Amino acid sequence: MFKQYSKRTCEMAGGLVRAVGMAICSLLLTSLVALAVSGQPAGMRPPVLKDVGIDQLLNNQVPPDLTFQDEEGRTVRLSDYFGDKPIVLSLVYYDCPQLCTQVLTGLLGTLKTLPMAPGKDFTSITVSFDPKEKTPLAAAKKREYIERLGRPEAAAGWHFLTGEESQIVALTRAVGFRYVWDPVTSQYAHASGIMVLTPEGKVSRYFYGIEYAPRDLRFGLLDASAGKIGSLADQIILYCYQYDPTRGTYSLVLMRLLRIFAVITLVSIVGLILFLRYQSKKKDGRSSGNNSDSGGAKPKIGYSHMSILPLYLIPFAPEQASTFAQEVDLYFLFLVGLTVFFTVLVGALAIFFMVRYRRRREDEVPEQVEGAMLLEITWTVIPFLISMFIFAWGAKLYYEMYKEPKDALEIFVTGKQWMWRAQHPDGVREINELHVPAGRRVKLTMTSEDVIHSYYIPAFRTKADVVPGRYTMTWFEPTKPGTYHLFCTEYCGTQHSGMIGKVVVLSQSDYQNWLAGGTSEGSPATNGEKLFASLACSTCHQDQNRGRGPTLAGLFGTQVKLDNGTSVLADDAYIRESILNPRAKMVAGYQPIMPTFQGQVSEEQILQLIAYIKSIGGKQDGAANSGGMAPAAATPAPVGQGAAPPATK
Ligand code: CUA
């Protein structure tokens, strides 16, 4: 019991190790993405009017001793408003026909939805930068806006100031607000925006435009209050959002999240490697020498270390044990290499350009470069060629792996929650194991009795879905005797992870011995013949079309004429369908009288019936050779030991 458990743990650990490999790849990809993200060109400043604008003088101290008149005509010092609350500062002039009204209306809209209240959580100060404007106007504006806000209590927290020119100039300079009097239109030319100050009166944030997202302003105020306002949750959200100075808004900091996850991934990988190494050392010390396994194959399931990579600590790939393995690995290595190459190239170039083209003077404006045809063609054509090469190589590999092999040993596999059953041509069956001879092509014809499973032998680099109601094929040629992992790689229920087994590759002679020692229950074809009789198929399907159903001798692999005028190839899928759903494809000239055998025969029995039908002959004339069919045995398959495989589909 315990041994079983530890073996399973070890096998699952093998899966984890591969997962580590995947994680490293994804980390590489992540860093590539991160580079791509960070490699965006820094936002260039749009040309601005020289004398108008808002400069970001972050952390600048607003002079606290500047004096203004409030809306009631009292002389106030700015320091009167400093202290324990952050400050929203808006610079407008009350008679402004356009922008200033927009600024105040925008601010008003934001304040309406903000969960914080002026006076309670922050102070709002609106200052006119037109020295000609006086208290009565300010008072009127205040009345209007407090009324529109609908919160009379906010009156204590929103101040409308006017002042002398010297004080105005000092204030606007301190916060980087530049404006000019335009005599042509008799208006001030100015930019629009608001500022958030810390409780001490230092500039904390700028918000441009005339509309300010409540979320942004809220974060801005939280920032400014330096943690004095807001709950812990706010602080966490704050960490994930960061102010984007080029856009004047807060945005989710993708890079920050990426970094957090990258660190978690890295720590997990290192921890896992150390843990697995510790485990395997402990196990090696305990269980050496007391392994016995069927077939006398070497019991240890090994992983080869790709010595090319300096990752020899990590068992990076399973052993190469089939004719496919080497090329698949080479292909994979090529992809990894390509990824690493471009990651390094892009990273190195990014760093080089950062240094080479760094900003040398404060007022340096980069030259706008446009049009580099040669460069564009180069970096279009080269990746195109590379991706076509990847495609061609991958397609070649795929084609080789999914093309029907010639002269293969055919083994039937059925998947079922949660086990793998296999039946050899001479009838030997096994569960969760697969014994195959080395140096011979082995074709697996597979189907499932319940849900989708997937038959995966990492050491062979082969994997194929096993689908209910359908036959799928995979093949391989094992190259060396040994024991290898067999996994289900399609999540198929609670015990999916336990749907594992082993593939034992034996030498030709060992395989024959193994077959001889197995308990044969008759070949699939003979079992199928028995079923054919016991299900009374033979009463209708008689020789030379004497029965009520068409004769089945010589049927397999031929084209069958249907009553709708079309014809269909008599292959595994067609025969299976005709057993389970006889009316789906009616043979021309016959009545739809055959009952369905749905629920009466298992998938395994259907395979046996198909094997029997194959054994009583396939196409003899070669007329239907277009489907790439291997010649089928024209004579009934010999029964019992050492039988040739039934005719391949
Ligand atoms: Cu069968 Cu997962």
Give an overview in words.
31% of the residues are buried. Helix 1 runs parallel beside helix 8. Mean pLDDT is 76; it is low at 1-17, 32-49, 227-238, 288-300, 302-312 and 619-649. The protein has a 5-stranded mixed β-sheet with strand order 6-5-4-9-10, sandwiched between helices. A 5-stranded mixed β-sheet has the order 17-16-15-19-22, with helices on one face. It is of the alpha+beta class. It has helices at 2-38, 99-113, 135-149, 165-175, 214-224, 232-240, 254-287, 325-356, 373-402, 508-517, 524-534, 572-580, 603-615; strands at residues 53-54, 67-69, 75-77, 87-92, 123-128, 158-161, 177-182, 187-190, 193-197, 203-208, 241-244, 249-252, 303-304, 317-318, 409-416, 419-423, 429-431, 433-437, 442-448, 453-457, 462-466, 472-476, 482-488, 500-506, 559-561, 567-569. Helix content is 37%, strand content 18%. It binds dinuclear copper ion (CUA). The site of dinuclear copper ion has 9 residues, from loops.
Spans of 5+ residues with little confidence (pLDDT < 50)? Answer: 1-17, 32-49, 227-238, 288-300, 302-312, 619-649
Derived from helix and strand composition plus strand pairing, the structural class reads alpha+beta
Distance between the termini: 42 Å
Global mean pLDDT: 76
What is the alpha-carbon Rg in Å?
A: 39 Å
Inertia-based shape: elongated
Helix content: 25-40%
Note the beta-strand portion.
Answer: 15-25%
Strand order, largest beta sheet: 6-5-4-9-10
